[in-house]
Fold this protein.
Amino acid sequence: MINDNKNSKFPLEKTETEWKSQLNSLEFQVLREKATERPYSSEYETLWDSGTYVCKGCGQELFSSETKFDAGCGWPSFYQSIDKSKVKEIVDNSHGMSRTEVVCSNCGGHLGHVFNDGYGQPTGLRYCINGISLGFKKK
């Protein structure tokens, strides 16, 4: 886990202008500025089709539908990523609490947070992910 994403380098680097031309304003706010979408606003929160969830910023495969579960939190939730190398975990001490932020390891896009709260079985992890940070490839 890294302590600071600001100085991290990622394989895919783009300027703010390039990101703004690729993403709509809400996608940019979440993926690049670490905002959070409203709970229950994502089409992926209730999607149960078989497939793969990818990063909206770069298309990297992140989560399998086989690891998705209903955590009742209002955001798509997964108990593990496709591969630990696909996401980076970063210490997040914002908003008066300590959490673990999850970003795409390829482009650094903010995905959400991971909680070790026992909800996601069999790992006990709950990757609480902004649906707007994702795309979906149906199987």
